[in-house]
Amino acid sequence: MTTPIQLAEQLSTTTLLRFATAGSVDDGKSTLVGRLLHDSKSVLTDQLEAVEDASRKRGQEAPDLALLTDGLRAEREQGITIDVAYRYFATTRRRFILADTPGHVQYTRNMVTGASTAELAVVLVDARNGVVEQTRRHAAVAALLRVPHVVLAVNKMDLVDYAEPVFAAIAEEFTAYAASLGVPEITAIPISALAGDNVVEPSSNMDWYGGPTVLEHLETVPVSHDLTGCHARFPVQYVIRPQTPEHRDYRGYAGQIAAGVFRVGEPVTVLPSGRTSTIAGIDLLGDSVDIAWAPQSVTVRLADDVDVSRGDLIAPSDDAPAVTQDVEATVCHVADRPLTVGQRVLIKHTTRTVKAIVKDIPSRLTLDDLSQHPAPGQLVANDIGRVVVRTAEPLALDPYADSRRTGSFLLIDPADGTTLSAGMAGASFAAVVRAAAPADDEAEWDF
Question: 19-35 burial string, b = 16+ CB within 10 Å, else e?
């Protein structure tokens, strides 16, 4: 039997996978998550007892595993998911952070929130209904956010007599649609979340299926957290000036490396000012090091006394991003109040926040058929559209397709600090799809 100490040692060497679930209403997302947690023995005894008690009060003989994630009172009363529910669990092979996202159209913004940091998205489909509008919507959001792995979970196979032709037709339709959006990897798995078929254990009812179970795929899908091959970016969070007798001349710039590798002696450029210098030293956990990489939190010292403050970006001089005051991006509007042309906003990019104005909203995206509605004038809650924002000060943004970290930003209401929209700089997935096919070495998204 594995002891707690042995388990802790195993988990310390395992990788982490962030994934999100999505699907139409009543497709069984919460039941799948509950089954995944239950069958992988990731549910505490008191949690399971609480679910069993709540299920009995609702007149259900078997425990409703969806209650493990649907925590809001309104969610339990209506039997739907409203907010993003995060769950943390682990097996001996991998650790997981799961975001169970809503299925309703009016909660599209919640899916964007849950999938924005995900490396994998599980899109559920009811085997009786097949691919519907909301399925296409969720696939489009996953493609827009550059989620590199998508799993199609064809649920409720028990209600279609575990028929292979039903699964094959749905898998073929979804795969063709997702591939047209540029999703680099799609894996289809037939399941019954209620009965547990192919969730954690293989199903004897579908011996025609020879692929992995959901958990097996989650445990084995290749996930790279190596950001050292990306463009090196260091947003400055804080300037350290102790001015004590022993550190009278110390000036360091603290923050977390967003991507890439920095080395002592490397020529760097401070943006947006464009001033150049050389890295004189890197301090990590109280020690001086010659090299540091993402996502380490470090203090960088420069050879020259240049003006650097919070919000500036330090990058290698031979690989510095361009600065601009005209930001063209795709945004998902998350606030209840609309985003309008001419509206004054704040734009928060990494550690920098500047004033801006919405100059134009060229189009709004209709996700069910990927059509562009030109010049809508405004974006309302859950809308996804193209915007052009003019900033009061230059920003150093990377295209979102190159970096989810330095290519994303928030639009904020300057009056009360409310988040208005989540933005992704550069071309949307629709523009990428219309472009020429990428070369073989660019076929997969790399973050």
Answer: bbbbbbbebbbbbbbbb
pLDDT the model gives residue 439: 39
**C-alpha–C-alpha distance, residues 286 and 221, integer Å:** 36
- Supply 340's token pair: 């309008």
Give tens-digit pLDDT for 147-173. Answer: 989 999 999 999 999 999 999 999 999
Pairing, β 352-366 against β 384-396 = antiparallel
- The DSSP 8-state label assigned to residue 146 in this structure reads T
Peptide bond before 394: cis, by omega within 30 degrees of 0?
Answer: no
Rounded CA separation 117/333 (Å): 17
Please work out, in degrees rounded to the nearest 5, the angle formed at the alpha carbon of residue 298 by the alpha carbons of 247 and 231.
135
What order of strands is seen across the sheet that includes strand 94-100?
85-90, 94-100, 15-23, 120-126, 149-155, 186-190
Token readout for 5 is 């100490």
Query: What are 355's strand-pairing partners?
Result: 346
Reduce the DSSP state of residue 326 to 3 states and report it: strand
* Residues in Cβ contact with 63 at an 8 Å cutoff, skipping those fewer than 6 apart: 48, 51, 52, 55
Contacts of 150 (CB under 8 A, 6+ apart): 120, 121, 122, 123, 139, 142, 178, 183, 185, 186, 187
Q: Which two tokens stand for residue 194?
A: 């209620």
Q: Are 143 and 179 in contact (CB under 8 A)?
A: no
SS3 249: coil
Place of tokens 């989810």: 404
Tokens 């279609």 belong to residue: 160
Torsion of CA 149, 154, 156, 158, to 10 degrees: -120
State the pLDDT at residue 57.
63
CB-based burial, 398-425: b 16+ in 10 Å, e otherwise: bebbbbbbbbbbbbbbeeeeebbbbbbb
Q: What is the Cα–Cα distance from 429 to 386, expressed in whole angstroms?
A: 11
429 by DSSP, 3-state: which? helix
DSSP 60-117: -SS--GGGGT--SHHHHHHTS--S-EEEEEE-SSEEEEEEE---SGGGHHHHHHHHTT
Could you give the angle at which helices 133-144 and 164-180 cross, rounded to 10 degrees?
A: 40
Express each pLDDT in 90-142 by its tens digit. 888 999 998 887 766 666 777 888 888 899 999 999 999 999 888 888 888 88
Say which DSSP state 245 is in: G
